[in-house]
Amino acid sequence: MKAAEDFGPWLARQLKNARKSQADLAEELGMTRAAVSAWIVGRSVPRDDTIQRIAEVLQTDLATIHTRSTDAQAGLPVSWYHRPAHADGGREYGNAAAFAFEADVSVLAREATQNSLDARLDRAEPVRVRHTLHELTGEALARFREAIDWERLLPHYEALTGEGGKQGKVSRTIAAGLHDMYQHDRLVLLRVDDYNATGLTGDDYDNGLFSAVVRRQLDSHKKDSGAGGSYGLGKATLWAASRLGLVLINSTLSEPHEGRTERRLIGRLDLPWREVDGREFAGPAWFGRPDPDAKSTDVARSWWADEETVDRLHLTRESGAPGTSFLIVGAHDVASLATVTGTVDEEETTEDDDSVHRMHARLVDALGRNFWAAMTGGGDHKPHLEASVRTYRNGEVLIAEERVDPAVTQPSRTRALRAYLEGDTVDRLSAPGQVALATVQLNVPLHGGQVRGSVPHEAVLLVTHAEDADGRPNRLVSMRGNRMTVKDSSVTNLPVGTNPFQAILLTGRAAGQDAPGAEAAEEFLRASEPPEHNKWGQTEELRLTYSPSAYRRIAALTTAANNTVRDLVAVPRAKRRNGGEAKIAGRLKVGTAAKRTRPIGAAALPELDNVDALIDETGAWSVTVDLRVSQSVDTDRPLSPVAKFDVRSGPRPAAPWKELVAVSGCEVVDGALHLMPGSRKAVFRGVTDVSRHPVRAQLTGLVVELRLGKGEQA
Fold it and tell me: Which of 262, 433, 495, 699, by CA, is between 20 and 30 Å from 50?
């Protein structure tokens, strides 16, 4: 087997772990210190008989020394280190960062997957993210508790949940988790693995990804302007999703640390202040190997584990590809409990309520809803992300692995993005399945509140017809570089009868690496996102980096995008009047008595200005009528719009209204249209009652007649 590390660095670390110096080893071996020093620096290697004696000194076996794929287990066993209480008496009753988000697996999936996207290693290939739910019971649960040294943890949990504990929100959550685990003999693990990611590189304490995630708060360590996260809060969702505040980590590094890359392990426990056996503890604790270089002999650091240890901790990765596995111990989903029980009180819920089946479904839904664009590829463009969810019970498959397919979760939007990536778009929609493309300009302000000048950026706007599987229609979703959905808003003020659609706004790098102003837009929009990354607007960072009024550029972008969407989905006026929509508008007639001789002194009527009509998805006629009102029209007399089917012979069958509403310049009272005094224009909308159609709307035309009062035809 190929050694994972050179002998010299490996031996130096074993001596440090065993708290032995080179001189100590030389003395125990009966050799000179110079000989040991030569091994450490790589000038020579010991003979086989000397290696046997080194194994005895380190209390390990020959295989460990020859393969050097793990550390010797002598001297410093893996254990829990609990941070001592502050010397000045200060106390924290929980990690404030964990309260920035709901304890919701949907939020967890969003934040954790965003972090994986930001850590993508090979930008030409997707990062692969897998969520694994694993329900442990009986003997399997007992073995896992033994592996995490549960007996050493239990006094700290009891200190929080017993009579002397501070019964805050965190303590109540932990008490509920312990109660369910012991009462039902069951524990839910949720592991989040990513592959083709950087892994937690860097030293345990110095600046780096490892320390940013494991040791620090509010440190995102993301320098790329296209990164999704920027506050360093998203990682807190991992601990917030654990009823026990416990997360174990196994990372495969893209850059060696201490000469190693595989199976770097650490555990972190987030608890409130507590007192155990007369000692006060600040809150967090770490599961690792005591650090011989630390001032306190109890400080724990990461360690390089063997395959057996990783397996017992349920942290085995499927390959040696770089990335990280986070194991959430005691996973729960308060949001799903609220929808089922009507409450999110931890003391009133149980693990039975927190079904792994429901959690599995919510993970799939959240991944599809938030990352459908990142999972979409087309042409020469590969997806940024592949995601899946699977569920086990005691090592047996409970729900087979389900790969999230964006074409299933968001069919219309996926079709639109794929068409854009493949260069298959049109200027305006004229047939189902087409994707219309337009650009919307964002003028990115300059740093420091400079009034003059800006960086122009052309965002890409895509519009296509909606499908039922998309969810709510007539929405505009917006995103930037990593293609995670940031904004999801409705497009308002649409003409009645507008065909259902979905729209996408691609900004920054999402609009293309070569898009003008893409980098400036990324930095600007990233600064405008709150910790939840669910909108663009005024933030403290935006105000300080740019100016107090910089957010107005975002409002202008939103307005321009909505206006462009309305233009793309509207039926052009020429088509309305000249038969461009021949099957609908060309068969609409407005019936009046103008063809007859009007009696002298008869009241004047409003004149037709414009008509929009189409057959909606229910099969009903949807009509918008614009009327011009001259000064000779008597606005005191009500009008009755009447819809009839246009047949070739015989009387026209009536098409009763299901809905008749006033838009402007009029009001509807008891089915009659009343013009506003002084108004020179009136607009009303009507939708026929499809349940009372004598014939399908697609097989005939429609006539709209205006009548005076009750039954007086004009």
Answer: 262
DSSP class of 459: E
Residue 197 per-residue DSSP state: B
Residue with tokens 């009034």: 451
The pLDDT tens digits of the residues spanning 617-653 come to 788 888 888 888 888 888 888 888 888 887 666 788 8
On whether the CB atoms of residues 384 and 482 are closer than 8 A, the answer is yes
One-letter amino acid of 33: R
Alpha helices by DSSP H, 549-691:
551-569, 573-578
Residues in the chain: 714
CA distance 535 to 544: 18
Give one word for 160, left, alpha or beta, with left for phi > 0 and alpha for psi -120 to 50. alpha
Which pTM was predicted?
0.72
Q: What is the mean pLDDT of residues 417-434?
A: 92
Is residue 505 predicted with pLDDT exceeding 90?
yes
- Report yes or no: 387 and 371 within 8 Å, Cβ to Cβ: yes
Residues whose CB falls within 8 Å of the CB of residue 171, separated by 6 or more in sequence, listed in order: 93, 160, 161, 165, 272
Among 451, 482, 476, 443, CA closest to 461: 476
Tracing tokens 């001789």 back to the chain, one arrives at: 597
Contacts by 425-429 with C-beta closer than 8 Å and gap 24+?
A: 425/462, 428/568, 429/463, 429/464, 429/465, 429/501, 429/568, 429/569
Of 344, 341, 330, the C-alpha closest to 177 is 330
Nearest to 374 by CA among 129, 104, 121: 129
Could you tell me whether strands 279-290 and 186-195 are parallel, antiparallel, or unpaired per DSSP bridges?
unpaired
Is 243 within 8 Å of 332 (Cβ atoms)? Answer: yes
